[in-house]
Specification:
The protein is an all-alpha fold. The chain is built from three helices and no strands.
Length: 124
């Protein structure tokens, strides 16, 4: 009888399974979200992008992880060299998220107005 080795956090298979579980969690269908939930998610994303645009290394940057120390340090150095390029995109993503949040707020207002008009039409 073959026994499979236990998975540890140092194991590459463990990292792969953890990564797959992380991305599977994000696969929640967004079509079922209500307008206020969408607005809240967009607001949180905008805040995250605004915070990341000021950081030399954004929080939770997945591309900087590596099992070997020398590779991780090389990735970190390369990231720092090229970070001025990506700062602009963090800012643009933040701008886009804020504009989309404003749009979601307008959709909320319009939904309330449509509900009011339907109720008024139903009374007539």
């Amino acid at each position: 009888m073959l026994r499979s080795p236990t998975m540890t956090s140092d194991d590459a298979a463990f990292s792969h399974v953890a990564r797959e579980l992380y991305w599977a969690e994000d696969a929640v269908p967004r079509s079922r979200m209500t307008t206020p939930e969408v607005r809240d998610e967009l607001h949180d994303f905008a805040a995250l992008m605004r915070a990341d645009e000021r950081l030399p290394i954004p929080r939770g940057e997945p591309n900087l992880a590596s099992v070997s120390r020398w590779r991780r340090q090389l990735k970190l150095r390369l990231f720092r060299v090229f970070r001025p390029i990506s700062w602009r995109y963090d800012r643009l993503l933040g701008d886009h998220a804020e504009l989309t949040t404003a749009l979601a707020e307008r959709v909320q207002q319009l939904e309330a107005e449509v509900a009011r008009l339907r109720e008024e039409l139903g009374r007539r």
